[in-house]
Amino acid sequence: MQLRRRQQVLTVGGAVVAMAVSLAACSSSSTTPSTGSSSTGSGSTAPSSGSSSSGAALSGTLNASGSTFQTNFQQGAIAAFKAIQPGITVNYGGGGSGKGRTDLAAGTVSFAGSDSPIPSTETANFSGKTVLYFPVQIGPIAIAYNLSGVSNLKLDAPTLANIFQGKITTWNDPAIKALNGGVSLPSTSISLAVRSDSSGTTANFSKFLVTAAGSAWTLGSSSIIKWPSSAHAASGGSGVAQAVKSTPGAIGYVDDSTAKAAGLSAASIKNKDGDYVAPSSAGAAAAASAVTPKADLTFAAVWQAGAAAYPITYQSWDLVLEKQPDANTAAMLKAYLGYLLGAGQQLLTPLGLAPLPSSIDSAAQAQLSMISS
After folding, report:
1. Could you report the per-residue pLDDT of 39-56, keeping only the tens digit for each?
2. Which of 30, 81, 132, 355 could form a disulfide with 41 if both were Cys (CB 3.0 to 4.6 A apart)?
3. Among 345, 356, 353, 355, which residue's Cα sits nearest to residue 142?
4. Distance separating alpha carbons of residues 25 and 28, to the nearest angstrom
5. Helices 2-27 and 71-84 meet at what angle, rounded to 10?
6. Is residue 70 within 8 Å of residue 316, measured between CB atoms?
7. Average pLDDT, the chain
8. In the chain, what is the straight-line distance between the N-terminal and C-terminal CA atoms, in Å?
9. pLDDT band (50, 70, 90) for residue 66
10. What are phi and psi of 95, to 5 degrees?
11. Three-state secondary-structure class, residue 134
12. Which pairs from 18-21 meet CB under 8 Å and 24+ separation?
């Protein structure tokens, strides 16, 4: 599984790493922070270099784990940041949002990638320590499927709810046929592919179903869901993608970049405005543009209004403890997170992800000053 994940990162992210190094070469030509901004996507701007290029060279290692959604972005950003701050080594391992939060609470990592806020059941693990949320990317969750001869599948929230609860079991079910007039749907049995690990993808997909499907969805929202016993549970987004790809009739939820890398088809989903929208960085950006974050910069990008908004859109944060063990670690975190929120935002769109709206990005950059030792 880890080999497949590394191969996927190389396939999807190789061009982005090259772009990152090119960006770094440009931004490292000056040791003075840029005061201007350059466009990074729909409604979003970010500084050309960010605080990571602002003067003093730093040295040390930052270890991180968590969100598999962030892996490709982190790989590209790490390569670019190394050219700006060669003395800093950043290591990012996936494992899922739940693992990242567990590792951060245990003190084994300097920051954690998470696609959902810390649930109340995990709050005690942090022993009263203040955790800062730094949003770094927006992205679409694709509903990937393996159905020969069907390339333009349409689904809505109530139908998805009944599929993933095991109430709709064949592809020619009347509920699916009603959404796909003129499409020849086979009687093939539906096979569910879901996450086995504690996952922000699961949390955001189930939040969409709670919000958009209403009473049709009865399994709640959490990083771990008790799926029907017939579901195929796999670890990581790459595991779900592989399960869908290898199983005729399968359907699963997975980040869009991973689905595309696996060559999977993705359904168009009915959004809040009643339009069917396919997953894309533009659709995710449109959804995020309608978000108003809380004071701690947590928010949910699912089920946002707008004709172009893709409805199953997630957000991902890097979680950092406000108080660091020493001044050097605090400085390195400010530098690296400053890069992710600055020039690093330009790496997102080529990965099928979306940059932060400018208002959220600016608030996150202002919050860097709260990291202290």
Report:
1. 333 334 333 344 434 457
2. 355
3. 353
4. 5
5. 40
6. yes
7. 89
8. 38
9. very high
10. 105, -10
11. strand
12. 19/76, 19/346, 19/347, 19/350, 20/76, 20/77, 20/79, 20/80, 20/344, 20/347, 21/79, 21/80, 21/83
